[in-house]
Design brief:
Length: about 200
């Protein structure tokens, strides 16, 4: 399925190719490839180089761990994410280690780390589908996530599968056109809401 970004201006091929599929192939991701995705996350920038991220990873070859993570996703996400060979939860530390003061950019930095994972994954021929639909309290209880850390999002990772294996409803979602706001709606200059002449 070709869901490449129809960009208004030329962007890098890896960014054009990335999208969030529902159909995943029944094919494992080699451990060294998975390690490279996590290494890409490791080299993301972060405020004060705090690296306020942690990743809980479950692969299908460890069925108990996989089921445990799958059940931290909301039911709607479980319906398709169960097919992915790798599931992940991202977790953020709300406080700076050195003084326990709130780190306002913790979620931002976790997002940057996941951005790196997405780019590396695309370069490896993989797809990442991130999920806000997770059970945050269940993840805390099941994994013993400490109070100053919080689960941010889930991610299903794998090779693209056959959309025909999806329900009709999910097939329709899978085929839907990808849309984006135009630059003019969110690039401002001078004052809030005034479109920049750049765009
Ligand atoms: C933080 C975040 C949370 C998301 N949560 C969900 C989710 O719970 N379920 C889902 O099916 N897709 C989820 N998505 C996928 C988005 O819907 C998707 O990225 C968006 O529609 C743009 O599509 P694209 O990634 O194919 O470009 C999420 C994406 C992100 C980045």
């Amino acid at each position: 399925m070709d869901k490449h970004a129809r960009a208004d201006h030329p962007i890098h091929e890896l960014l054009k190719k990335r999208w969030s599929p529902l159909a995943f192939a029944d094919r494992p991701v080699p451990v060294d490839v998975l390690r490279r995705l996590l290494e890409a996350a490791r080299w993301a920038p972060s405020s004060y180089n705090e690296q306020p991220w942690a990743f809980i990873v479950a692969t299908k070859d460890k069925p108990d761990e996989f089921q445990k993570l799958l059940h931290c996703l909301v039911p709607g996400n479980q319906t398709w994410a169960h097919a992915a060979p790798v599931l992940m939860l991202t977790v953020a530390n709300h406080n700076f280690k050195k003084n326990q003061k709130p780190n306002r950019h913790a979620f931002h930095d976790v997002g940057l780390a996941m951005g790196n994972v997405c780019v590396q994954a695309t370069a490896e021929g993989l797809f990442v589908h991130q999920m806000a639909g997770i059970e945050v309290d269940k993840a805390r209880a099941d994994y013993g996530i400490p109070p100053d850390w919080e689960a941010v999002a889930g991610a299903a990772i794998g090779y693209y599968g056959d959309p025909k294996n999806l329900s009709e409803q999910l097939q329709a979602r899978e085929k839907a056109e990808r849309t984006r706001k135009p630059l003019g709606e969110f690039v401002f200059a001078g004052k809030w809401g005034a479109t920049s002449s750049l765009v």
